[in-house]
Write a structure and sequence with these properties.
3 copies of one chain form a homotrimer.
Chain A: H1 13-25, E1 38-43, H2 49-60, E2 64-69, H3 70-73, E3 77-78, E4 91-92, H4 93-103, E5 106-110, H5 118-123, H6 125-133, E6 138-140, H7 148-161, E7 168-173, H8 183-192, E8 198-202, H9 211-214, E9 218-220, H10 223-227, E10 232-236, H11 258-261, E11 268-270, H12 283-287, H13 293-314
Parallel strand pairs in A: 1-2, 1-5, 3-4, 5-6, 7-8, 7-10, 8-9, 10-11
């Protein structure tokens, strides 16, 4: 593993999950591994879990983390090639990536989509620009279309909590007042497709995800049907993909409630957080013994730590 | 000590002050104590002394500090229970506190009052919410109604500088152009009430502090009378408590001047900073040999370090 | 060296450059030198290279760096003496500098000019205020009129890359859409004047730099003439000094292009970054083998590290 941009950068997923679970047992075992190494973390968007868990992962390996909020502490960057830069962008991504590569041993980047131009968002220009121009490994802390550190934490959580060899996992759309990206859903689908699991996606009509991602996955608009026999319910909102970035359903019909959870095979409840209580899911579901949300939170440390450790070992 | 929310969390104040003064002699003596521990510092409001001194205290104990400006780098949090979160709050304090507890071994929080709703501010919801939902110790870096790290630093400073067993300490209101919280005044009163000292509070009419705090303390509206025989003058502005958050006196009559200091028993001058020069106090007073403002600043390190150390020892 | 405010704080420049180049060979050789020391870095303006390279330099010496964005995370500071502080400035620079001196072993400051009042900017009040009131060493991370850490990195880069004993160095004005400070140009002129080099400055009429700085340096308005036989072309935009802060030439005539570089003695190209591509210089020039921009970036680490190390040794 040279970079960690998409879940596909993990070659042997099952083995990677196992190694991450092992790391969790002795998180400080490799505390000298990152000696004299620096992780540059740059944020174009807000973050709580990613910001903290990635710093914690770095600390556990003895890596020094430097954080930078690019918009406030830096300036807008130009992504397009051959542009006459006489407008508001002060620096080209070529320089930004090359400069970061000189000061840091890894570059981690968070950059959300505009949700305005589907074409541009699908190119995932910021993270791929950093990958292209950096001379050090680049790690995706959530890009326009992917959140692989979250997906890896989710996969670890599923492996730790599954009760049968090939559990039924349901990714269910849930309501949200704002237009949200597809990154978490995309990466979750991509990683669970590679696990020993039966994946179902359920969402209201009009909320189809990118068919390149959901290709081969069973999709239904009947949430109740989807929940039957489910072992894991993964709730997540996303805005429309076809009617790009639009939100046309704001009622709470699709909220995950206790009565819906009762349709399942005593399923575990998952969500990547932050979660809108009593919108995405009811208090009852979030607080129930079947809720794994804090397990996912904890596994964000070992997801990031496992990626950093693997990159160092392969370096 | 499990948490440090209010000065009342210190059980044996005199002993705690003595231990803090001892720590100051050898600040790096316990530099391995915090090995592999992380302090999460979250700010809902600006900070200079608290930000730096708490980081320095953590460093002295070998604790890694991670800072986060919650408003810019995160998002607004919901404090109310059972709310349908379909407005502008992205995350509930329950999740925020529980998540921070997974990534950090201590959580330090700064959250000022609104100065709009007295009832809400008195509930001190942010710091108490973190205390309630966190599974790790929570430290108050100034809340709606208390600033115990400042008060402890002030108590250390008084103990170091008092010339008689039971000094006369005067907390004097002073002018300020903006509406300020009551937190510093509250915690100062609460801590000095427990010291061997004679406390007097003086302020213009209409600036009475919360009577639950000042209960039993001598209060006068005659600043000159108050200053007589004083050993310490602690200047501080606060907005009206009864006419909540209002400022109805902006002239400089109550500024601490050299001629007022001349009424005292060669009193030391104290203020928590930042200080508006020639508004709260004159340049002359601030720069005089009797000014202890930088001693207070320095003791902020040992106040925070003593709290962190005690929490680790009790943990 | 007690402070590093201007390039003139380096007494023996040639020796200092040599020591910096030596440090670059073994950057972690002195990793215990800064044990228990804290560098406070305060930013009144954005920064990428300075922010990261100074942190990296501190890490290499084992110094803990604390960053603070003064405007967002703190408040506006008062620079004038004897002011009645009843307006928007919450703290005087006297307190800010003295407080930082208690928590930090070094203070590094970035504060750009207003480009509105030439008189005020020339006084360089923020950095000089910190120097005056701090009791610990103060380091300039770019002030109103100087950027000595950049100039030192530039001098190191020239020494490493020069092919003859006394190279011809050309500082060329180049276009930019916004009004920029004179700090980089000033410090570059000041440091190259002291090197074994032939310095030429070229700019359009009306863009004369401060004559106190350029005194004794050959200046021409003919860019083509200037480039003849040049060994180094240092491109930089600055706003008018005489017509203070004004921009009255926005066309791209003065952009550094390949055909202009062809007039030189196979000159190296330099710029401090961030660079507006195809405005300040063409893509071709920036990407050419003769471009030293990333060498300058790398030398920012050793420039800062050499300054910190020297300050510690002299302390």
């Amino acid at each position: 593993m040279k970079n960690f941009i998409y879940t596909s950068d993990i070659v042997d997923l099952n083995n990677f999950i196992d190694k991450s679970i092992k790391l969790k047992q002795l998180p400080n075992k490799y505390s000298m591994m990152g000696n004299n190494k620096t992780l540059g973390m740059i944020f174009f968007n807000p973050s709580l879990r990613t910001r903290l868990s990635t710093q914690k992962a770095a600390q556990n390996l003895g890596i020094k983390a430097i954080t930078m909020n690019f918009n406030d502490e830096g300036w807008p960057i130009e992504l397009e090639d051959k542009v006459v830069m006489d407008q508001n962008k002060s620096e080209h991504i070529k320089e930004a990536a090359r400069v970061m590569s000189i000061y840091c041993d890894f570059i981690a980047v968070r950059a959300f989509p505009s949700l305005e131009s589907k074409k541009k968002d699908l190119e995932d220009k910021v993270i791929n620009g950093f990958k292209r121009y950096a001379s050090v490994p680049v790690i995706n802390m959530e890009s326009s279309i992917a959140h692989p550190l979250q997906a890896l934490a989710d996969a670890i959580t599923i492996k730790e909590n599954k009760k049968n060899k090939s559990p039924k996992i349901v990714l269910s759309w849930a309501p949200h007042p704002k237009a949200l990206p597809h990154a978490v859903a995309n990466s979750f689908v991509n990683i669970t497709k590679r696990m020993d699991a039966k994946l179902t996606i359920t969402h209201p009509e009009g909320y189809e995800l990118n068919s390149d991602v959901t290709n081969g996955v069973y999709v239904t608009n009947d949430q109740n049907e989807a929940f039957k026999n489910a072992d894991f319910i993964y709730a997540k909102n996303w805005s429309s993909f076809n009617n790009y970035g639009k939100v046309f359903k704001k009622d709470l019909d699709w909220m995950i409630t206790k009565s819906k959870m009762n349709l399942t095979n005593n399923a575990k409840f998952m969500h990547c957080l932050p979660i809108r209580r009593n919108v995405v899911a009811s208090d009852e579901v979030i607080e129930s013994n079947n809720s794994l949300i804090l397990n996912q939170v904890e596994n964000r440390i070992y997801s990031a730590q496992s990626v950093l450790k693997t990159i160092i070992e392969n370096g």
